């Protein structure tokens, strides 16, 4: 096993493999977008289903409310994510313009910032001066280094449209799963709810497992953690619906 792993790592770190990997656009941002959309979609629709069941609504009402929330909340969440990523990109661009201006106005001060940044990384003497000279000889590299090292910002992989689409698609696909039992004829409302509960639990667990594979976390721990979070949200919605029925007579 270790030999195969070592061989795989050596293959991934060949010069041509590294070059190919670095040329590919970053997809790191889309993974958390999809995870967030999937979890929120499943929580949203199953919360509606749970609230409707707790309030005593019919299966038709639960399905209509679930679909309406699925589309409206999914679109709202995608737009919100788009605006957030766009704002982040605009912030990076603003910092980049500011650093360009600083280089024009106080180049020696900006050069000293580069020197101290890499000095803190352990470089010194002639090696440090060569690094400073190399970076400051290229305006674009100079600015990007300041943006990343001084401000801790990055713009690579930030695509508002792709992030919004990843969120929306994950929200719709995963969020639709708890509604499927309500579209099956012949099931009474209790069985529909229990089937929806099982599907939602499976979705939460699978999302957690998928997240663990991407971020190299313990599979069972991540799956159970996501399941508990989703279950807590659904339980709160069921309790709210049940209390609404009891206190205000809401229900069918």
UniProtKB/TrEMBL annotation:
The chain crosses the membrane at residues 55-72, 164-184, 196-215, 227-248. Its main location: membrane. It comes from the Bacteria. Keywords: Membrane, Transmembrane, Transmembrane helix. One of its GO terms (cellular component) is endomembrane system. GO terms for biological process: intracellular manganese ion homeostasis. One of its GO terms (molecular function) is manganese ion transmembrane transporter activity. It holds the Pfam family VIT1. It is found in: Endomembrane system. It is a multi-pass membrane protein. PANTHER family: FE(2+)/MN(2+) TRANSPORTER PCL1 (PTHR31851). This is VIT family protein. It comes from Halomonas lysinitropha.
